[in-house]
Q: What sequence folds into this?
């Protein structure tokens, strides 16, 4: 049976994971070439993306446990 909420949560998690992956990629590419202040800004953005990714994953897991789909 198709669960619309599960599909929405999977899509949200996929988007969050992609944003996090891109943020880490940019951070790694710019590490040696950016001034420290800019690197710290990028690191903060990557950390924010990591938190959002983790929250999206937890929401998906919670839904799976509660809904059983």
A:
């Amino acid at each position: 049976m198709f669960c619309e909420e599960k599909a929405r949560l999977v899509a949200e998690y996929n988007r969050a994971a992609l944003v996090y992956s891109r943020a880490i990629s940019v951070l790694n590419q710019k590490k040696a070439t950016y001034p420290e202040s800019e690197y710290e800004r990028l690191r903060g953005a990557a950390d924010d993306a990591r938190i959002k990714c983790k929250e999206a994953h937890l929401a998906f897991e919670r839904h799976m446990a509660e809904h059983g789909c």
